[in-house]
Design a protein that fits this description.
This protein is an all-alpha fold. Helices cover 53% and strands 0% of the residues. The protein has one domain: ACP-like (Non-ribosomal Peptide Synthetase Peptidyl Carrier Protein, Chain A, Orthogonal Bundle), CATH 1.10.1200.10.
Length: 79
């Protein structure tokens, strides 16, 4: 999860310690449409995976990102 939090914190310019499963565009002002795409790109590069359009559209919070990463074989803190 450290790499996941690091990417989120870097792209969104927020403190890693503030990131929770519920962190979303609803409660992070900097999580706009541009940064949402940047997040996807950074996760794809960092973990050498590819999000399909349905996965991109389904991301509503950090928990969703973790679920998609897990589906692609990326270990998250839940394991």
């Amino acid at each position: 999860m450290n790499k996941i939090k690091s990417i989120l914190a870097n792209v969104l310019q927020i403190d890693e310690n503030s990131i929770r499963d519920e962190t979303s565009p609803e409660n992070v002002e900097s999580w706009d449409s541009f940064n949402a795409l940047l997040l996807i790109s950074e996760f794809e590069k960092a973990f050498n995976i590819h999000f399909d359009i349905n996965e991109v559209m389904s991301v509503k919070c950090v928990k969703d990102i973790k679920m998609i990463l897990k589906k692609h074989g990326v270990e998250t803190e839940d394991e």
